[in-house]
Each structure stands twice: as C-alpha cells, then as structure tokens.
Design brief:
Helices cover about 60% and strands about 5% of the residues. By secondary structure, the chain is mostly helical. InterPro entries: CB, DNA_brk_join_enz, Integrase-like_cat_sf, Integrase_catalytic, Integrase_recombinase_N, Integrase_SAM-like_N, Recomb_XerD, Tyrosine_recombinase_XerC/XerD.
Length: about 300
C-alpha cells in the first residue's frame, strides 16, 4: 500500500469535505495503522481483498476497544470507497465487515453545582485568572468544542448581540451560538482589562491569548481546566469535553428541545445528540430513587 495514496485521500477529504485538522489527523493515523498491518504481512494495495480486510479486522478487535475498532473500520471503508472511485481498487474489500457491537457508553457529566465550583475557581483579580474565567464561562455557555474555543478570533464575537460565530466547525459548517449574560460580562472584562495586557505590542487576532501574547493551544487549555478541577469537588477526570457534555445535559434537564441542542452543539446528525437524552434520563432516575418515598 503506497503511503502516497493516504496523502491523496487525506487531501481529497480536506478539499471536498472541509474536514477539521484534528479529524484529518485521526483519519491519517487509522490508515497508517492499516498500512503497518499490511507491511507486516508483506502485502500491498493490490493484495487487499475481503480476506485481508477480515484478517485485519479480527487482529484489530483483539487489540483495541470496540469503539476504536469501529472507528478504524469506518475510516477504511471510506478510504476503499475513494480508492474505488479513483480506480485503485476493483471492488470494496470491506463490504462484508460489520462494526462490532458495543454497549451504550454514556458520556461523563458533572452537576450544575460542580460547574459553579469550576467557574468560580479562577482568581479574577489576576490577568490570567480573568482570562481563564472568560474561557470557562464561554465554554459552558456555548458548548463549543475545545478546538473551536481556542481558535476563536475577536471578529467572531459580538458581545452587544450576545452571540458567537463558530467558523467551519466540525463537519465544515458555520453556526451562530448565543452566549448568555454571564459569559458576555466576563468576555467584556477580559477583552478590556486582560487581553490588552497579554497582547502587549504584538499583533494577534485570536481571542484567547497565552501569557506570551501568542495563541492559546488545546493542550494549554486542558492543563488550565485540570488545574482548576483540583480546587473543586469534581472526582471524574475533567476535560473541556466533559464541560461540553454538561452544557448539553443541563439544557435537556431544563426542558430544551433536542433539535435545539443539536444545532447549538453543531451535530450534523441528531443521533449523535440523542446520547444526551440517556444522560438526562439517568439523572431523573437518580433523583427519583433518592427522593421518592417508594423508590
């Protein structure tokens, strides 16, 4: 299997579908794993058939979780469909492969009171603390993906209107997300008091800046959120994605329509959003068992 074909496939995903950088990296890694498997078997692209694909799938299922193997299978299926269109393959060797069964894995979430603890953790008397509070408030108010949050530019924010424009989110689609009064307040405070201090004499249109005046990275924000988590009663491993889960779950707990939550999260398919209805339902069960006299 020529690695140049992987490059060509990734390029086509970027050009035709406008997929995000992180998504493209995941596709590339999955195909590199398949390439390594072929190499150990001394096979090339012309050797790929249903038996080879099945052998790879069996090997993979023994090595990784069902969710990971299913993702890799989906990647290979998409690659093979592309290779067929480009006449690198004569038939799709993955047609007979079916994704592994896996139990419904509910996303971990945190309570509203725990979110309050997290939001109140930064010391807003400091420049970094004010920035961190603004980032956390924005994350919880909008449910943005961490990549969407750290790549926001100042021109994407309209504080007077109370909205954020997410440019080319996952799936290559823009969306408008309201932010609420509290996030508006801390964003305004950050942009007038903290951001100019962080920026100094540099030129940078990214909204959230590091202490060096450079763009905030995903990894840096992960460390920030983990630091504040230690100051709260939150016991589960905390990440930006957990706060995004909390955003969706708390909306549903308060009666938000599933379609509205889908739009706010930027999910292309409502089936992706429906997982949160299970989270909300589990929360209702817990409350019932705790408070109902006959539970």
């Amino acid at each position: 299997m020529n690695k140049e074909l992987i490059d060509n496939f990734i390029d086509s995903l970027w050009l035709e579908d406008g997929l995000a950088k992180n998504t493209l990296s995941a596709y590339r890694q999955d195909l590199n794993d398949f390439y390594d498997f072929l190499t150990t078997k001394q096979l090339s692209l012309t050797d790929i058939n249903a038996d080879v694909a099945r052998a790879w799938f069996i090997h993979m299922n023994a090595e990784v979780k069902a969710s990971t193997s299913n993702r890799r299978l989906a990647t290979l299926k998409r690659f093979c469909q592309w290779a067929l269109r480009q006449h690198y393959l004569k038939e799709d060797p993955t047609l007979s492969l079916i994704a592994s069964k896996q139990g419904l894995r509910l996303p971990k979430s945190i309570s509203e009171s725990q979110v309050e603890e997290l939001l109140n953790a930064p010391n807003t008397e400091t420049i970094a603390g004010l920035r961190d509070r603004a980032m956390l408030e924005t994350l919880y108010a909008t449910g943005l993906r961490v990549t969407e949050l750290v790549t926001l530019k100042t021109l994407h924010i309209n504080i007077d209107e109370g909205v954020i424009r997410v440019i080319m989110g996952k799936g290559g689609k823009d969306r408008i997300v309201p932010m609420g009064e509290t996030a508006e307040y801390y964003l305004r405070e950050y942009m007038t008091k903290a951001r100019p201090e962080l920026l100094g004499n540099k030129v940078n249109d990214e909204l959230f800046l590091s202490r060096f005046g450079t763009s905030m990275t995903r990894q840096a924000f992960w460390q920030i959120i983990k630091k504040y988590a230690t100051q709260t009663s939150i016991k589960i491993p905390l990440s930006p994605h957990v706060v995004r889960h909390a955003f969706a779950t708390h909306l549903l707990n308060h009666g938000a329509d599933l379609r509205v939550v889908q739009m706010l999260l930027g999910h292309a398919d409502i089936s992706t959003t429906q997982i949160y209805t299970h989270v909300a339902r589990e929360r209702l069960k817990q409350l019932h068992q705790k408070h109902h006299p006959r539970a």
